[in-house]
């Protein structure tokens, strides 16, 4: 019950004014079959979530769906991603870093999980292309290779999730 209350409270905080609330209510009430399907899905997810912060995230996703910023399919994809988050994952994903760097895979469990969820992508490159068309390894590249240093960045999918959950 507490998770459901958290979801409802977070959703209500998203609504800015009465006119906006009426628009969302109208969209919600238009199609009974869709409404029942949506509510059933949301309640099942809320019940399944273990972390109390996840219903808040789901409320923001659902609000974005009602504002037509997400399709239903996108909402379900992001909702499933949130289900698989561990507490540190969103902190890692939403950090201000433009690139995430790991050395010898130490402390990168969260990053690897985010890669598996399609939210980050590895951008490591040890080869640089020369102006004559050839490739080579620079001293900086060699140093990163020796340290087993990897770099990652957010995917478009990950950027959209961070923008919605801010």
Describe the structure.
The chain contains nine helices and five strands; from the N terminus they run ααααααβαβββαβα. The protein has 166 residues and is mainly alpha-helical. The strands form two sheets. A three-stranded antiparallel beta sheet has the order 1-5-2. It has a two-stranded antiparallel sheet with strand order 3-4. The radius of gyration is 20 Å and the shape is elongated. The chain starts with a helix and ends with a helix.
Determine the number of helices (DSSP H or I, runs of at least 4 residues).
9
Radius of gyration: 20 Å
Extract low-pLDDT stretches: none
| Spatial order of strands in the largest sheet | 1-5-2
Order of helices and strands: HHHHHHEHEEEHEH
Instruction: Tell me the fraction of residues in β-strands, as a range.
Output: 5-15%
Class by SSE composition: mainly alpha
Helix percentage: 55-70%
Largest sheet: 3 strands, antiparallel
Distance between the termini: 25 Å
Quick check: average pLDDT?
A: 80
Cα shape: elongated
User: What is the tally of beta strands?
Assistant: 5
Chain-wise SSE layout:
Layout: H1 2-14, H2 18-30, H3 32-48, H4 54-66, H5 72-84, H6 87-93, E1 100-103, H7 109-116, E2 120-122, E3 128-129, E4 135-136, H8 139-146, E5 149-154, H9 156-165
Helix pairs in contact: 1-4, 4-5, 6-7
């Amino acid at each position: 019950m507490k998770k459901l209350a958290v979801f409802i409270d977070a959703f209500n905080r998203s609504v800015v004014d009465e006119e906006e609330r009426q628009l969302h209510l109208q969209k919600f009430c238009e199609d009974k079959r869709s409404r029942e399907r949506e509510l059933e899905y949301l309640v099942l997810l809320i019940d399944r979530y273990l972390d109390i912060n996840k219903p808040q995230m789901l409320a923001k996703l659902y609000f974005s769906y009602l504002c037509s910023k997400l399709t239903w399919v996108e909402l379900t994809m992001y909702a499933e991603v949130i289900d698989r988050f561990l507490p540190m994952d969103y902190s890692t994903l939403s950090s201000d870093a433009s690139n995430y760097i790991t050395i010898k895979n130490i402390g990168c469990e969260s990053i690897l999980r985010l890669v598996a969820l399609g939210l980050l992508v590895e951008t490591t490159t040890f080869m640089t292309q020369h102006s004559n068309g050839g490739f080579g390894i620079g001293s900086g590249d060699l140093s990163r290779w020796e340290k087993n240093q990897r770099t990652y960045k957010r995917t478009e999918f990950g950027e959209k999730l961070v923008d919605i959950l801010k």
